[in-house]
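Before going further, learn to read the protein records used in this course. Taken together, the tokens spell out the fold as the letters spell out the chain. A record is reproduced here so that you can trace the correspondence yourselves:

***
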Amino acid sequence: MSSVVISTRVRLARNLKDYPFPCRLSEQGRQKVLQSVRNAIKNSNSAIADDFSYIKLSELDQLHGVSLVEKRLVSPEFISETEGRGLLLSKDESLSIMINEEDHIRLQVIKKGLALEEAYDVADKLDTLLDENLEFAFDEKLGYLTQCPTNLGTGMRASVMLHLPALEQSRAIGRIAGNLSKLGLTIRGAHGEGTEPKAAMYQLSNQVTLGISEKAAIENLKSITLQLAQQEEQARERLCADIGIRDKVSRSLGILRSALIISHDEALSLLSNVRLGVETKQITELSEEKIDSLMTAVEPATLSASLGKSLSPHDRDIERASLLRRELINQ
């Protein structure tokens, strides 16, 4: 199942009782919220406190800010306005807390593969740790109060990142998306709402947060994920019986190992083809983890940030090709 499910993410939205929502919060209020959340982690007497580093968004350059979005560690909206915002990030980047985004607190946990229960367990412990030092805005009938009504209740958004090349090729995604909406789920591009899917990467997440428990939402998402993964695996068997598809996979690896210049979209498309080859055992010298890391490394801002300088689109395409050759040619 790991070949279909790339990663799991659980995000919780929380607000502090005695402060207006961030959209109506003064600069002084924002600073108080920032300090309160930082102190809640720092003074928690938990080992997890030492694992976090703090990033003041107003001191973060745009290149590294966009790279955080590309890695799915923060939202595009979060870096669009930097004043009075901060980020707590764990060393391995699996835990992050956005402060003063749409809500006072957006904490998220990312795990590899299908690990919904494990990710929620970590998020719940972090949530409890914060709740011990902060007073959240909560209503007995409505649950956790959030700026956007669609997050009322649990305040939880759980999602899985899926690689669905066979279902995409068979044009089944549209039908599947319609059926999922009836089950309280949505399927979108890898970066969520408003993004188009690239490299056959899709994000499946829960839509309903009110009138349902976190456990029920997790169980529903897991059940549908397993069904969707099974459909993808069955579709792959049919797809990869075609020698034309197997040839496409081989050619994709050849291009990645030899190209001197390559665009972002082409790199993602070719890496998706190669990942399909790895998943179906056509390619045995590479791992899914290797391909996943390269998909992040070739992102425009992340690539430039790794080199420590801004690059023109043309130079970026050259550096991207160089990176891919270096990482794949001897594998």
Notes: The chain has a mean pLDDT of 93. The first strand starts at residue 5 and ends at 14.
